[in-house]
Amino acid sequence: MAFDGEAFVQEIRAELTASGRRLDRAVIVERIANGEATPAEMVGWARQHYWGVTYHTRRVLSAWVTKIPYEMTDSVIENIAEEVLGTVSKSGFGHLHWLFQFTRALGAPDTVITEATPNVDATACESFLYNLAHQRPWHELTFGGILGIENQIPPAYIRMVDGFKTHYGNILQPDDYAFHTIHITVDEDHGGHVGEFAERYLDTDAKRRSARAAYLAGAELTRRCWDAFADASW
Ligand SMILES: [Fe+2]
Question: Between the CA of residue 73 and those of 62, 80, 93, 182, 234, what are the distances in Å?
Fold first, then answer.
C-alpha cells in the first residue's frame, strides 16, 4: 500500500497526545491557565524558552535553510524575517523584543534571563535544535522543530493567553503578552502541510523512522525545558 503522509502525521501526533507530554499540557501552562503561576515562575518559563528555543531560532533556521529543497526556502526565510523583524505580524519588532516586554511587565530586569546560566533542560533543547540544523538529514528539522515544537505553540499559548486575561489583568496588559498572541497567529500555518510534505519527502522507512524520532524528541525536550521554570529570582 502506498505511504499515506497525512495518516503518518496523525499517528505520531496521536502518539504524543496519548503520552500526555504535549506542550499545551506543560506544568507552566496549567499553572497559568489556573492563575496559580507566580510572576517569578512566568519569568522562569520565559528564561527557559529563551535559552532552549527562541534565542536560537534565527541561527537554527539560517543553518537549515542552506540544506532544504529550494522550493521550501521562501517560507523559512519568511519565518526568519518574522522572528527578527516582525514582518508577517507587522508587530514592529522581532520576537525577542516581545519576550522582554512580557518579563519586564512581570517586574524582572532583563539580566534575570540574559545572565542566567542555562540549565540542563534548556541546554539539551538548544543542542538538539542545532544538531538537527547542522548534522542531521534536513527532513528531521521539519518534524523535530516545525511540527514537534513550532506547531505545538499556538494551542499552548491560547491556554496561556486565556490565563493572562482571566487571572493576571492586574499585572499584564495585552501588549505585555504580544509575544504569545503573535505566535498564535504566525505559527498556526506552519504545521498545516506536513502530511503532504511527509508523502513527498519521506520516501523510505528509514526516513519515516528518523522523522518520528525527531518529532518525539523535539516535543519532549521542549516540554522538559518549559517545565524547568523554577528558580528565577531578582
Ligand atoms: Fe518566535
Answer: 10, 11, 22, 22, 42
